[in-house]
Design a protein that fits this description.
single chain, about 350 residues, mainly alpha, about 75% helix
């Protein structure tokens, strides 16, 4: 009986059940999560590659910059070249002085060239305005206006050297016979108005008085300008900011309109007061200038502190025989001996 049961169990057929199929929502969710993970992996790989390329470019740029070397400008002196090749915090003021000097020289050169250009324009504008109205007329005849001007100057110089011969030549150049000119003048008459006029005594005295007053005013004006110039030079020599030409130029440009405005008020009794007021107004209102003044004021204090420390070190050295030691060193056997000496006042 038992054998039959075992046979039945061993020969029992069990159906293989397939796993339940996922719903549409679960299937889509699974696919979506898989795509997201794949996209994240791809993006992470792309970002890593981009960072690698960027770091490679930056590394190349840095290496290129490190390979660049610069020779000092040719107009530098020996001290400036040494500071340029080996810049440090101690020699930074040398490079600052060079840059300020070059900026000052460049601006002065530019201003000088601009002034020369303006002078040429003013000088030639009157000539151009005189001949520009006739330039097209001579151009139609194939004559350059410059040739006309050159020929007129040549005739004028020739008239000064040989007036009669030049007059004859000039008339013949235009097809006019001197004899015909004389005959024509005789036919029209030779009456000429008298343009000679003489001043009366009162007019002469009035003219002399006006002339004397004008000369006196000019002399007074020159004297005032000279005194103001002396005051300005004395004022600038007292202010450390005017020692550097570039700094002085910037400070002067900002002070100029303030000085003019203060002068027009008439509330100040002297030029020194006007300059001092304008200087304080500009320096206190400009953080660059105020910072420079603060550095100039703190420099002597720091120098005094250094001198005090140096004197203290020298005094300590003269007492102990070695720098930095306040009292002579005493040879001790052990810690107990050292403490005993300390307690005993040794």
């Amino acid at each position: 009986m038992e054998d039959n049961v075992q046979d039945v169990e061993s020969t029992e057929v069990v159906a293989d059940r397939e796993p339940a199929e996922l719903s549409i929502r679960e299937t889509l969710s699974k696919q979506f999560n898989g795509d997201v993970e794949e996209n994240r992996s791809q993006a992470s790989a792309d970002k890593t590659e981009e960072k690698h390329e960027t770091s490679q470019v930056v590394s190349n740029e840095v290496s290129n910059q490190e390979r660049m070397v610069f020779a000092p400008p040719a107009d530098m002196n020996k001290i400036e070249k040494e500071a340029f090749l080996n810049p440090t915090a101690e020699n930074a003021h040398i490079l600052q002085s060079y840059l300020n000097r070059r900026a000052y020289e460049t601006r002065n050169q530019y201003d000088r060239k601009a002034q020369e250009l303006n002078t040429l324009i003013e000088r030639n504008s009157s000539v151009y305005n005189t001949i520009k109205d006739y330039e097209q007329e001579y151009a139609k005849e194939g004559i350059a206006i410059t040739d006309v001007a050159r020929r007129s100057i040549a005739w004028d110089r020739a008239m000064k050297q040989a007036p009669y011969e030049t007059a004859m030549e000039w008339l013949e150049a235009y097809g006019i016979s001197p004899q015909e000119l004389i005959e024509r003048q005789q036919m029209t008459g030779n009456d000429q108005p008298d343009y000679s006029q003489y001043m009366t005594r009162d007019e002469a005295e009035k003219f002399a008085t006006e002339r004397w007053t004008t000369l006196q005013q000019e002399q007074e004006k020159k004297a005032v300008e000279y005194m103001n110039q002396m005051v300005v030079e004395s004022f600038m020599n007292r202010k450390p900011l005017f020692r550097d030409p570039e700094t002085a130029s910037q400070l002067e440009s900002e002070m100029a309109p303030v000085v003019q405005a203060l002068t027009q008020t008439g509330r100040y009794s002297s030029a020194e007061e006007v300059l001092e007021t304008a200087y304080n107004y500009v320096v206190n209102g400009n953080p660059v200038f105020s910072g420079l003044v603060q550095k100039l004021n703190t420099a002597p204090v720091i120098q005094q502190q250094k001198q005090v420390v140096q004197r203290a070190k020298q005094a300590a050295k003269s007492i102990s025989g070695s720098a930095g030691s306040g009292t002579p060193r005493v040879q001790t056997k052990d810690i107990r001996d050292n403490l005993r000496r300390r307690l005993g006042g040794d």
